[in-house]
Design brief:
107 residues, 0% strand, mainly alpha, 76% helix
Length: 107
């Protein structure tokens, strides 16, 4: 509402009978509450959207890190498995290579 209209509005309000003043005040209060409620709901909705976006971003980052870590772990497992097998020697079930026997041993 513009300020130049305010004095006329105030004068018109003063000229009203008491019942109409009260009725006008209730309508203005209802309009104010409606606007306040809409503002609160809109603010809450925007905050919820921001929180949802932040959680989605965090989830994507965590998923990326887990994939990166598991991919690295798989590569490390394969490398570690090959190194462990080489360190253990021949695989189970295979006969060890024959060694030359010393004189006096039976072959």
């Amino acid at each position: 509402m513009r300020t130049e209209n305010r004095p006329k509005l105030e004068q018109d309000f003063k000229d009203l009978p008491l019942e109409q003043k009260i009725s006008s005040l209730f309508r203005m209060e209802a309009a104010t509450l409606e606007e306040t409620f809409a503002y609160v709901v809109d603010s809450t909705r925007r905050a919820a959207e921001k929180a949802g976006a932040a959680l989605s971003d965090l989830s994507a980052r965590i998923e990326t890190e887990v994939k990166r870590a598991s991919t690295g772990a798989c590569a490390e497992d394969k490398t570690a498995g090959a190194a462990t097998a080489a360190a253990k020697g021949p695989k189970a079930g295979k006969k060890p290579p024959k060694s030359k026997s010393s004189p006096g041993s039976k072959n």
